[in-house]
Amino acid sequence: MSGPQHTLRRTPRARDAPARARRSSRRRRRTAAAVAMAAAVWVAVLSVQAAVHDFPRGVLLLGCGALVAAGAWEGVLRRGWGRVAGLVVAGAALAGGVLLLVDEGYLRTLLLLGLGAVVWHAAARSAFRPDVELPAAERPRRPVVVVNPRSGDGRAARVGLAAAARDRGIDVRELRPGEDLVALVRTAVDAGADAVGMAGGDGSQAVVAALAADAGLPYACIPAGTRNHFAVDLGVDRSDVVGALDALVDGRERVVDLAEVNGRVFVNNVSLGVYAEAVAREGYRAAKVRTLLDAVPRSLGEHGGSRDLAWTTPGGRTMRGAAVILVGNNQYRLGGAAGAGTRPALDQGLLGVTVVDPPDRRAQPRRRPWRQWETPEFRVEATLPVPVGIDGEPAVLEPPVTFRVRPAALRVRIAPHHPGASPSAIEPVGALAALRALARIAAGRDPRQLPPRSTPAARQPG
C-alpha cells in the first residue's frame, strides 16, 4: 500500500485547541461535582428542616426526601435496570409525597425537593464522566496504521478510514486475506515506523500491541472491530473510528499492562470453562446464545472440561472444577454498578481472576456466585488439553495453563478529544465512596479511583 500523499496541516490555534478543550472539561467537571454536592446538601437540609419545624407530620416528608435522595443516587451508581429502578423509586416517592402532603401545605417544599434531586443526579452523572487529562507526547514522524478491512463487517471501509489516515500523514497497510499480520507489522517497523496503530478487532489488537511493546514503540487502538472491548477500557471512543486516528498525530500517552497465557499476549481476558468450550464450537458466532446453552451440560458434566480444571485460591487451597475461570489483564468490575463489565484500570500490574463455581446443591449459598482476586501470576492444572477463549478467539492450550502480567509494557496513544479512561475508572462502587469521589473531584484532584501503580516505565526504542 502506498505511503501518505500529503499531510494535514494545522494552525497554531488548531494545535492548541485540545489543550483548551481539556482545561474547559476540567473546569466543567469540578463545577459539576461542586453543584452535585451542594444539591445533596440542599435535599438533606430541606428534608430535616421540614421534619423539625412541623413534627411529627414533617417526619413523613423526611422519609419521602430520604427515598427521593436514595433513588436519585442509585440512579447515578447503577446501570441498566438498576439505574431505572433507582429513578423509579425516586419518582414514586416524590409523587407519593405530593399525594399525601399537598393538602398540608408542603407542595412548594416537595417541588424544591424534586428539583434538588434532579440537579444532584444530573450533576453527579456529569462529574463522573470518564474523561481524564493525559500527558502530551512527542508527535510521531512516520506513523503507520494497519487496517483489517474484514473486521466489524467492513467498518473501516464504511467510514473511509484509509483516506482519513492518509489525510493525516499516516501510512496505511491493509491486511489482505491470508496475509500474516505479524510479518506485515514487522515489515513496517523495519521500514522505519515510529508508531503503530491497528484498526481491527481485539484479537488483532493483541498481536499488534505485543509487537509494539517489544519494539518499544507507541501504539494506537483504532476501534474498527465489532465490540472493541480493549478500546473502551483504554478510553477510546469506539463510536469515533476516524477520530481515533488523531492518536497517531497529536495523541496523549498512557502506559498500560499486557498479560500472557503460556507465552501468548492478550489485552483483555482469557476464559476457561463453559464459555471457552462454547467459543470453540462450530456455529458459535452465528448463534452465540444457543451454542453457549448447548455447551453447559457437557462442560459441567462429570467428565466435562470444567470439572478437569484445578486451581489454587489466594489462601493456598487447591480447588477443582469451575463453571468459568476468567483471567483478565487487570481486574474487571462485575455486578450492577455503573461501568460493570469494564476494567477501572489497566496499569495496576496485576491479573484479575474471577471464578464462577459450578452448581453444587450441597454447597452453602454465597452472596455472589463468583469470587474475585488479583495476583501477578496464576496457574490452572488439567489432565487434558484445555479449551480457552483468548480475547474472544478460540484456542486449545497444553496444561499447565500459566498466566502472568507484564507491568507497564505498552505505551498507548489516545486521541486528545477521547475520554482517556474506562467507564468504570471515575465512578466508584458504593454511596459513601461516591460522595468522597465528588469531594475529590471538586477539589481538583485526579478523578480516577485507582491511581497508576509505581511500575517500571515501558521500554523506549533503542
Question: What would the keywords be for this entry?
Answer:
462 residues; alpha+beta; Rossmann fold; Tumour Suppressor Smad4; 6-stranded antiparallel β-sheet; 14 helices; 20% strand; globular; disordered N terminus; disordered C terminus; Diacylglycerol kinase
How does this model look, in words?
There is one protein chain. The protein is an alpha+beta fold and about 450 residues long. The protein has 3 domains: about 10-15 and about 140-265 and about 410-440, Rossmann fold (3-Layer(aba) Sandwich), CATH 3.40.50.10330; about 20-125, no CATH class; about 270-405, Tumour Suppressor Smad4, CATH 2.60.200. About 40% of the residues lie in helices and about 20% in strands. It contains 14 helices and 16 strands. The longest helix has about 40 residues, at about 10-55. It is globular, with a radius of gyration of 25 Å. The model is unreliable at about 1-10, about 285-305 and about 455-460 (pLDDT under 50). Belongs to the diacylglycerol/lipid kinase family. This is Diacylglycerol kinase.
